[in-house]
Amino acid sequence: MIVLRIPVGSAIPMDRQDEQRRIDLMSQVRRFDHVGITVADLKEVTAFFVGLGLEVEGTPMFVEGEFLDTVIGIPDSRTEIVMLRPPDGGTRLELSSFVRPDHQPGSPAAMANELGLRNVAFEVDDLQTVVDRLAADGYGLVGNIGQYEHVWRMAYVRGPEGIIVSLAERIG
């Protein structure tokens, strides 16, 4: 094993070939395509996100067979998937509900410091209006509405099945 000891603050010289290798490695990801969330009640969770302004892309579909079994490592699996996209056409949200095997429950009361995917975030035009509408539908704040400097107002809302939805309004 070769160990390089480089003094703190020293630059590591790179030739063109090293730089090209670094760029090639970084270019492996072409874009951020989607985030997937496994849910028990696909209709309820879909309705929640559609209510926030996301749009259903295509029609719900069932996926099963060798491809799915290979990718997720669960033999004889079958899932129903709904893809949602934000109005600006950005990164999509994939909601998946397993027909088989039965889904494994997560912690519906998970807090932001628990390991794993903790929230899905959206920018909104009027945070208070969205929070009030969600509260009327039975979805409450995890904490309170906070303000970051004079730039953002933000709140975490506990959505269906315990999903934490981060909502942010640009104010500056």
What does this structure look like?
The chain is an alpha/beta fold. It has two domains: 32-105, 2,3-Dihydroxybiphenyl 1,2-Dioxygenase, domain 1; 107-172, 2,3-Dihydroxybiphenyl 1,2-Dioxygenase, domain 1 (Roll). The chain has four helices and eight strands. The chain has helices at residues 16-26, 42-51, 66-72, 127-136, and strands spanning 34-38, 55-64, 78-85, 92-100, 119-123, 146-148, 152-158, 164-170. The strands form two sheets. It has a four-stranded mixed beta sheet, with helices on both faces. The longest helix has 11 residues, at 16-26. The protein is globular, with a radius of gyration of 21 Å.
CATH topology of the largest domain: 2,3-Dihydroxybiphenyl 1,2-Dioxygenase, domain 1
CATH architecture of the largest domain: Roll
Poorly predicted segments: 1-6
User: For the report, how would you describe the main beta sheet?
Assistant: 4 strands, mixed
Residues in β-strands, percent: 25-35%
Counting H and I runs of at least 4 residues, what is the number of helices? Answer: 4
Radius of gyration: 21 Å
- Terminal Cα span: 52 Å
The percentage helix is 10-25%
At the first level of CATH, what is the class of the largest domain? Alpha Beta
Mean pLDDT: 87
Whole-number tally of structural domains: 2
Shape from CA axes?
A: globular
Number of strands: 8
Order of helix and strand elements from N to C terminus = HEHEHEEEHEEE
Widest beta sheet: strand line-up: 1-4-3-2
